[in-house]
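User: Modeling request: complex.
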Amino acid sequence: MPSVTNMLRDKNQHGQRRYSAFGLLRKGLSNQPWPRVWREVPLKDSYDVVIIGGGVHGLATAYYLAVNHGITNVAVVDKAYLGSGGSGRNTAIVRSNYLTPEGVAFYDRSLTLYNSMADDLNINVMFSERGHLTLAHNDSSLRTMHWRAEVNKLQDIDSSVIDPAEIKKIVPSLDVTSEARYPILGALYHPPGGIIRHDAVVWGYARAADAYGVEMHQKTEVLDILVEGGEGRDGKGAGGQVTGVMTNRGKISAPIVVNCTAGWASLISDMAGVDLPISTRPLQAAVTEPVKVFLPAVVVSGSLHTYVSQTDRGELVFGAAVDPYNNYSIRGSLEFTEGLAGHVMELMPGISRMKLLRQWAGLCDMTPDYSPIMGATPVEGFLCDVGWGTYGFKAGPVSGEAMAECIATEKMPAIIAAFGLERFAKGDLVGEKGAAAVGH
Amino acid sequence: MANTQTPVFRSPVAAGSSTAPATMGATSALSLADETGVGIVSVRNRDEGSLIERFATRFGRATRSGNTLMAGQRPGECIIMGDRSGVVGLAASKQLAGDAVVELTHGRVVLRVTGAQASSTLEKVCSLDWSDAMMPNGAVTSGSVAKVTCDVIRDDAANGTRSYLLTADRSFGQYLFDALVDAGDEFGIVVG
Amino acid sequence: MLLVPCPNCGPRNSSDLRYVGESHKRPDPATTTPEEWRTYLYMHKNPADWMMETWYCSSGCRRFFTIERHTATSEFRNPPLPGGKRGGRA
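Assistant: Request completed. Predicted assembly structure:
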């Protein structure tokens, strides 16, 4: 528990002003501007670690490098602004009821970190642990739900299969009658799941990393990765050693370069001569006008490729499955809106008169087994934290923690040992069918 | 083993399942008829030329001789429709080595949409171009109609009335029938 | 809706076809090593550029065909000739 003196103390140990209710009140009364959340400093020509991608994964990696391992001579570079990619485009759902033991252990750690994030980072991330329902519309998905529940229980995750009457109690607006085209037969109920404000998570990590001296460089696009001694073109590829990156703002030397991008992971890795088993696909989402709060939980339907939650402002946020073909375009499509409307009305006929305010898309790097690719690559000093597909956001904190450990100790931590790139050459895949892209 | 029983081909479309009025004979501007049970045989051969020669049709075109319709349904695949024993016999009599001949009568639903408004009805549930320029009499194509994959043959009546034959997997039959009745409602569709 | 130029059926809605993915030359199963085979199965170039890819015309002619598409703009170019002569798996 922070003491009153602590709460009133103006600055934290790094000279940053703490966020607090008292501070908010004082700013409100004095009408003073808020200070910048992180510093803008000139780009140096060398760092210990360069992290490509200023999203949750990149920033969390930088933060845990500084906090857990004391490595602070770190630059996070992003070609646009922090949180401009998947971190700001996801539907902000966090949960840990995955299907593989590896996946469950991983996301449970992530959920733990999300739970204590507001305290750890001194920022209100508005985490709302409201419960997460995955609906089953047929026998086979009900069977998968039971399977997932048992895998989850084995690892002490709060997860169980509930029947339509209980579903109706939790979410009264759902159509649980047997007349529905896709009748609801049951659901996997996961009380610790919920939603979180994704922008605040990005800013929180950026602010906390900044306090430790990590530098964030926005509008800094990596044009090339400098590798020496490799067997591929220009000394790149397997056997090479990273020496730095070339950006639109000049050359940066660094012995370690980490690829924390989503959507552009293949293109960045290609700069180092590393091939990845990734296909990039957009995932579309949409948001309605705000209405009174009526949806108390996150509702997911794999068969209907839809998930929906209501924000604190009252908007309904919808997400879908990935588009059916590879694409780097983040434009929305009409068939998505049409399909989404049909599917959501199937679940909740009562919202037929609601209007969609906007739709958008984020790029998902899909791997053959729907599991991420983390850790070392055939190029010495070039690490990956990519291939997150449809669920990178909820894994942000734990992958940052694990990647930081991987960089500092030069060993794969046990929690991500199954996710190495070499698993594809060895045929040792980790099938994660609990991912949002998979219809059951 | 001789099997002397004659198989009966029942339609998946339940009789009297529609709210649209039934008529005897297609006198309306738009009618929907269930022709399931008409014999269907598929003949496939990698040699497209040999199919063209034997069945007097090519991919994308259908020719009618009497009650028998021969349609180049896909590259290297000809569909013969008509009286069941007739089409089975016809396929057998023209069979060559390298042919894959499969009777599909039991597995398909056959619906016929006839009348001046037939294309307007189908345009509502299908993205294919139903104009006369793209789909004149005798044209053959396939695509998704009301989200069901259908084989489509434009097969106008003898008096020149516009008519389309739709063939789909029989498990979709009732749904497809209902979807077409629904789409044709505004044009006063009748069943029969 | 993306219109995919099927060599047999003409332009069709992408929902009428199935996307197969990036086209690769398949190694000979009789002589390939497990590593080569897995590289063929899993590895992709995934460019943000023109890419040769395979589609299956599931609602139309039921043929596989390969075509070049730009993965950022979704324009198509170099459609194969009817019958899938260029690279088709017909």
